[in-house]
Every structure is written in C-alpha cells, then in structure tokens.
Amino acid sequence: MQSFLKISSIFIISLLFFACSLHYKSDKDLQNELDIANSCKNKSLKLEMSCYDLIAYKSSFANIRLGIYELKTGESKSAKNRFELAKQSGNFYANALLSNLYENGVAVQEDSQMAIKLLQDVEYLDPIAAYKISFYYFSNDNIKKGIKLLEFAANSGVKEAQKELVLIYTNNQYINEDSEKSMYYDTLYQDKKEDFSIKIYGK
C-alpha cells in the first residue's frame, strides 16, 4: 500500500510538472528572473559564470546564459540540458536556443521540423524567435507574415531585424520600396540602444 501511494505521489508530481511546463511565465515573473541574473554581471567572466551557477535554481536566465557559455566551451550536452530546464520552467526565450541545436544537430539529432516548431511556438512572444522564423515564412512565400514578425522583432529592439527591414524596404525583392519605413528602421538600427539579444543572453 505504501509503495502504491509512493508511486501515485510521484505520478501526480510528474503530471503537475508537465502541466506547468506547458505554460510560459508572465512577463513580470520573467523580468524578476532577468533582474536576478543581471545581478551576476561581472567584468570577470569566471566570476559571472560562477554566480549564475549559484542562482540557477531561482533564475532560468542564469541557466540560459550558462548554457550559451557551455556551448562556446564545447559542453554542448550540458548546454542543451540547461536550455531544456529553462524551457520547462516556463522561459520561452530558451526555445530559440534549442531550435538552433536541432537545426545544426548539436547535442541532438538534426531535426529541421523540430527547429521550426520550437520557433513557431513562441514567434509572437520572443522577438529573437520572431526574427529567426521570419526567414522560414519568406522562403515559403508567406511574405506578409514574415514582415509582420520582422517588424515585431525590430520594434522590440532586435538589431538584426532592424537591419533586415532597411534592406527589405529598399530593394523591391518582397514588396514595393518604402523609403519612409526604410528610414524609420535605419534610425532604430543606428541608435545607441542595447540589442535585445544582449539584454536576454547577457553578451
């Protein structure tokens, strides 16, 4: 009987964890976790990473930033685990990083469909994911959606999206030239504001 209760408890906890993992955290909760992670920023990369390691239990952004660092140092499996932990905790900014792993077959079997799905799941939440998935829509002749997502990313501060829109509104490849919009996005691109990617990824 005790064994049955123990198994049942584990099953219920697992179900609750799975249910929670289907929902993303609110902007307020994510901002709180981002603030916690930002408190670790340090001129010493070693000290910064050590700090992230200490607070990873309460900030999913710490796991994201540690995972990015581990990718650079060749610890791709550990990086993948950290991105998955962040995603499971409700941080939708992990999707774009996991997508990149599946696209390139790093620490996972290459799977382009999974890479696309991970981005599509958060394309209206994460400006970085919106920027990346926009090229998929352009390549499939869904120009309207591609531009919509690029504009979302650009207006959220993703510098590469701003740069891309300057080109799109000047070269007549996808739509007619629009000098007003081209100048608008060029102004955004040229400003001194921090790239949204740096805000999230830390570097």
**Helix amount:** over 70%
Distinct helical segment count: 12
Oligomer: single chain
Please tell me how large the radius of gyration is.
19 Å
End-to-end C-alpha gap: 53 Å
Mean pLDDT: 91
Model regions low in confidence, pLDDT < 50 over at least 5 residues: 1-21
> What sequence of helices (H) and strands (E) makes up the elements?
HHHHHHHHHHHH
The biggest beta sheet is recorded as: none
Q: How many strand elements?
A: 0
Describe the structure.
The chain has 203 residues and is an all-alpha fold. It contains 12 helices and no strands. α9 crosses α10 (159-171) and α10 packs antiparallel against α11 (179-190). The protein is globular and about 50 Å long. The N and C termini lie far apart (53 Å). 33% of the residues are buried.
Briefly say what this structure is.
It is built from twelve helices and no strands. It has 203 residues and is mainly α.
Layout of helices and strands, plus pairs?
Elements: H1 2-21, H2 27-38, H3 45-55, H4 60-72, H5 76-88, H6 94-104, H7 112-120, H8 127-139, H9 143-155, H10 159-171, H11 179-190, H12 196-201
